[in-house]
Design a protein that fits this description.
Distance between the termini: 32 Å
Helix content: over 70%
Radius of gyration: 18 Å
Number of strands: 0
Structural class: mainly alpha
Strand content: under 5%
Order of helices and strands: HHHHHHHHHHH
Shape: globular
Largest sheet: none
């Protein structure tokens, strides 16, 4: 029963933080490594429950995704949108395949998470103060070259604590996207990126899984799905009206707390 409760709690945290610029992976590392929460099968579980959050995006944006899918053979708009996601996904796919093992062995630690949270929060505050003038107000306006640049920004999130959504959103803002468009493009890019990460991790750690783990994984998956389903719309309202500064302050405060606890 303890394992199921922990799985539900980790799933809740994953769903609440996956699409916010605060690093879901960083939060899971802190909970598992710093507080000692364990939910088998370890890192594989953490990657698998991310698919629950991704499913929430697929539900919330089902109409857009379905129109793109059925329009691919004939519609230029659908083809361009799919190509934008592919271009934005490529940097993370290539760099992830090259450095996946090294990153997991070297960088997955609370210290790295704490430092990354602080640095990322400072970057967000700087970008918010700069307030780049937006040139692209919807995802459909984004040029492919800009999408590639955002893809390289997303690849920075392989460093735990950086935040995949945060890196993608800030990259989008710096390259001329309006706040809501940057957030939504981050959501869409999460679908191929996190699905690929799941497939790769599952392949590499398949021998760690057992039939007994399915119930725990299912609990984490469902909890992450429901939490993400509830958080996405309010997040878009907040960033449209206020911006990303509140999340930056949270990042800095959490990072300082983590490093202080580690130092003590």
């Amino acid at each position: 029963m303890d394992n199921y409760l922990i799985a539900a709690f980790l799933g809740l945290v994953e769903g609440l933080t996956e699409f916010l610029p605060v690093s879901s992976t960083g939060h899971l590392i802190l909970l598992v490594d710093l507080l000692g929460l364990k939910a088998p099968p370890g890192r594989t579980f953490e990657v698998m429950i991310q698919l629950g959050a991704i499913l929430a995006i697929c539900i919330l944006y089902f109409r857009r995704l379905w129109e793109t899918l059925i329009g691919l053979p004939r519609q230029a708009k659908a083809q361009r949108f799919a190509l934008l996601l592919l271009v934005g996904f490529l940097p993370a796919m290539v760099l992830g395949a090259l450095f996946h093992k090294t990153i997991k062995e070297v960088l997955f630690s609370p210290v790295v998470v704490g430092v990354s949270l602080i640095l990322g929060g400072i970057v967000i505050l700087i970008v918010e103060l700069m307030r780049p003038v937006p040139r692209y107000h919807t995802v459909d306006d984004v040029p492919l070259t800009t999408g590639l640049g955002i893809g390289f920004a997303q690849a920075l999130a392989m460093i735990p604590g950086t935040s995949r959504s945060g890196a993608t959103i800030i990259g989008g803002l710096l390259l001329g996207l309006e706040r809501r468009a940057a957030a939504e493009l981050s959501f869409f890019l999460a679908i191929p990126t996190m699905t690929a990460a799941f497939v790769y991790d599952a392949y590499k750690t398949w021998d760690l899984l057992s039939f007994d783990d399915l119930g725990i994984i299912a609990i984490g998956f469902i909890t992450a799905f429901l939490a993400a389903l509830l958080v996405v719309r309010p997040f878009l309202m907040i960033v449209s009206r206020i911006g990303f500064a509140p999340f930056a302050y949270y990042r800095v405060a959490l990072g300082v707390l983590v490093l202080t606890l580690l130092w003590l």
